[in-house]
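Example 9 (inverse folding). The structure is encoded as follows.
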């Protein structure tokens, strides 16, 4: 992140801390999609993820004054999302996870029907393999590959040592390779 962008983000959060609703609206516009995607992968239910994403933004409103700038705003907000997801999981009964497949996200006018089907099947296979990973490994994979975060930022969000993140990623990659390699094993976990 450039110095200008970091300054812009800090001013935005400072505005939220002062109660500026337009700054919260801008923060929401910038981060809601990433927070929702993170929560959807963690929770597996679109409605729960959307509701929890709203709780996260409410918490941003309440706690912006406590943001110290020691991490990127994305790291901070995903840390809040992680806590909200854990709180919800503790309160709720276990539910089977299901992925939402939106045909509109798969549509690409440049692809033919056969290509679309092949792409959807590959995506479904990858999703299946990721879902087969233990929860801790799924979280690391999501943050690294979908949020493009480094190990240090992932460690901060998950509140664990960086070495633990690296170990989880090692095991996740091994499990995904085994699952995607078609070795006959149905589960990605070791």
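The amino acid assigned to each position is listed next.
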């Amino acid at each position: 992140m450039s110095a200008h962008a970091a300054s812009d983000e800090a001013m935005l959060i400072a505005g939220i801390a002062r109660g500026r609703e337009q700054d919260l609206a801008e923060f929401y516009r910038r981060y809601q999609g990433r927070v929702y995607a993170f929560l959807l992968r963690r929770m597996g239910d679109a409605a729960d993820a959307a509701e929890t994403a709203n709780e996260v933004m409410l918490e941003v409103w309440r706690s912006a004054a406590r943001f110290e700038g020691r991490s990127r705003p994305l790291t901070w907000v995903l840390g809040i999302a992680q806590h909200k997801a854990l709180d919800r999981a503790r309160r709720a009964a276990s539910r089977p996870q299901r992925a939402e497949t939106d045909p509109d996200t798969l549509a690409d006018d440049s692809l033919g029907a056969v290509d679309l089907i092949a792409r959807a099947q590959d995506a479904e296979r990858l999703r299946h393999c990721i879902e087969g990973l233990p929860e801790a490994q799924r979280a690391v994979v999501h943050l690294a590959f979908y949020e493009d975060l480094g190990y240090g930022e992932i460690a901060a969000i998950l509140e664990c040592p960086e070495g633990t993140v690296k170990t989880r990623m090692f095991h996740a990659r091994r499990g995904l390779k085994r699952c995607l390699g078609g070795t006959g094993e149905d589960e990605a976990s070791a």
